[in-house]
Give the backbone structure.
Amino acid sequence: MSDEKKSRYTEAQAKAAKKYLKESVEDIRIRVCKGNKTKVQKHAANMGESMNSFVVRAIDETMERDTQKQASSKEIPSDALNSPSHSSITGFSPETERQIDLKRLLSDFLYQIDISASYGNEVLASLLDKARKQQATETK
């Protein structure tokens, strides 16, 4: 028996794979806080995918959500913001604004992050201003 280590691939297969990767794929290096790599690996495994597939999917889904958020914010005509069906503060319907717990918003940082992720930083700032004003009137 030979001392050479046998490869699973022929030299031609390895060359073809290298050419494919060079022509079709780009690398992105990311850094995460200590311990997060293991969390990502475990989550990806629980989802039945590789860590790379999970990260690519997360990026794609986030970009799609951001694009939809930008498109929906552009769809609100400026005159509609002054109508009774839209809040002048946040730019979305009063029903949607009523679903946000303003008291919780003042005290729960994670809730603030969720609101920011869902509606954007400008909306979060407007809602926080409204919550502070509401709190000030309630304490008088």
Remarks:
- The chain has a mean pLDDT of 80.
- The chain is about 65% helix and 0% strand.
- The first helix runs from residue 11 to 24.
- Helices lie at 11-24, 36-46, 51-75, 94-98, 102-107, 109-119, 121-139.
